[in-house]
Amino acid sequence: MAAASSLLSEDQFLCSICLDVFTDPVTIPCGHNFCKSCITEHWDTNVQCECPLCKEQCEKKPDLRVNTVLSEMAAQFKQSVLQETSSSSSEEQHTNTGEVLCDFCTETKLKALKSCLDCLVSYCETHLEPHQRLPALKRHTLINPVENLEERMCKKHEKPLELFCKTDQVCVCRFCTESEHKLHRIISLQEEYKEKKAKLGKTEDEVQKMIQEKRLKIEEIKQSVKLSKEEADQETTTSVEVYTALIHSVERNLAELLDMIEAKHKTTEKQAEGFIKELEEEISELTKRSTELEQLSHNEDHLQFLQKFMSLKTAPPTKDWTKVRVHTSYVGILGTPLAQLADMLSAKMKVLCADTEIKKRKKYQVDVTLDPETAHHKLILSQDGKQVYHWNYSQMVEDSPKRISSYFGVLGKQSFSSGRFYYEVEVGGKTEWVLGLARESIHRKGVFIEFCPQNGFWTVSLREGYGYKALVDFDPIHLFLSSNPQRVGVFVDYEEGLVSFHDVDASTLIFSFTGCNFREKLYPILNPRNNNAGTNSTPLIICPVDYTV
């Protein structure tokens, strides 16, 4: 068949209407062949059905069917022409330039302007002209220049892949829809392109979103590493300070212990020297007496012996040294200082650690200002929003949904839904107060409710006659403090679920709520309580944080 096709001329495969190689050729009653679309359009625009070549007329429009033999021959001819064109020297030129070149240029190949999906040929501007002028060619599908147009042909039917089978998700030609894909759902390539393009766009948006999220995560991780380095440096500095202080305390305690041991030894040594001196004096006296007795024992004159014996002085009294001991016990000398050192170190560690902890938490200080729209109508706020106290008379204020009316409370303007933050409140001079954190959805109207976590409050309070306390699970926890706080620091770690209260001046922890499950915005809350006829009229004051304390 290939040999036979090489003997046939191009004219035998050209439609006399569109002057192009047959596409879906049909044979009309007179025997002439045309493209199905060309002859159909020709008859649609003319009253009489006649052959464009021999003018033979038909009584009625015939039922046109594709001449499959001629269609296959035309397709093979078109394929052979395409192969010959692609194997020419233009291929080398195309390889060198990296551009799609015109398949019809014979000498210098020009850059292709368009590729025709019907002809499976790429055209430069000059050779594209018939497609822009002839009506039959105008119906061809032109696209931007592409390579390997033969890949756009159905390998089985040698027809353009111009349809899409949704059932099998493959590109097909028109003959495929009449054979193995006959009962399948078929749509145009353009429809599937739009659908897939939209899906691709959505996928691309999702990918871009994922990329952005991952980049943000990278930045978050980098920021975490940076914060970790800063905290590590701070912790290293603090640890060195704490351990240095502890080492100095231990060294001082050791020096005192060694001095005590040395002093005790010197006392023993001095006592021993006294004993030895006393013993040496007794030995001296006894030696003299021993000499006298020895001389007398050698005297053989009976009278003289007796006379001298009778004149001997009475031996001087001597001390009973049998029970005298020079011994110093060091048992327990180390235990007491060590116990004292342990107590001292424990107390010092508590102070140092608390002081270090509060200094670290002060880094997260925020500027809190009280919100007058939330204040109870009997509370007076300072002009700068930093102070609040109770007044006996109601203020003329709008009763908005934000305003607290069931207790003497006021919220901060600032809300927090992540991270860590810290603020300080001056409470000195007051006999009663409440302060801490409240969630956004707290009860603000009607009857009074307890300031406990179940109701959205994390607070500590002072009440005259009851002392300091915190409410957990509706049960009060009484706080026994070594001193009365003058300034209270409030620290919150949203993600950790931690709210802690600190005596700023004493650098001690007052109380901590742990394991909190925060899901809403948190607001600072202050309650100065009733002024009690002036005994509790001192305001609660939000203070600037002093980093040196």
- Return residue spans where pLDDT drops below 50 for at least 5 consecutive residues: 1-7, 89-97
**Class per helix and strand makeup:** alpha+beta
**Spatial order of the strands forming the largest sheet:** 11-12-23-14-19-20-21
Number of strands: 23
Shape: elongated
Describe it.
With 549 residues, the protein is of the alpha+beta class. It is built from 9 helices and 23 strands. The strands form 6 sheets. The protein has a 7-stranded antiparallel beta sheet. Strand 3 (49-50) and strand 4 (57-58) form a beta hairpin. Helix 7 (189-297) packs antiparallel against helix 9. The two termini are 101 Å apart.
Short description:
With 549 residues, this protein is α+β, with helices and mostly antiparallel strands. The protein has 9 helices and 23 strands.
Pick out its properties.
single chain, alpha+beta, six-stranded antiparallel beta sheet, 9 helices
Q: Which SSEs are present, and which pair or pack?
A:
Layout: H1 2-7, E1 25-27, E2 33-35, H2 36-44, E3 49-50, E4 57-58, H3 68-86, H4 90-97, E5 114-116, E6 121-123, H5 129-133, H6 135-138, E7 142-143, E8 163-165, E9 170-172, E10 186-188, H7 189-297, H8 302-310, H9 335-362, E11 379-381, E12 387-390, E13 410-411, E14 420-426, E15 433-439, E16 457-463, E17 467-472, E18 475-479, E19 487-493, E20 498-503, E21 508-513, E22 522-527, E23 540-543
Antiparallel strand pairs: 1-2, 3-4, 5-6, 5-7, 8-9, 8-10, 11-12, 12-23, 13-22, 14-19, 14-23, 15-16, 15-22, 16-17, 17-18, 19-20, 20-21
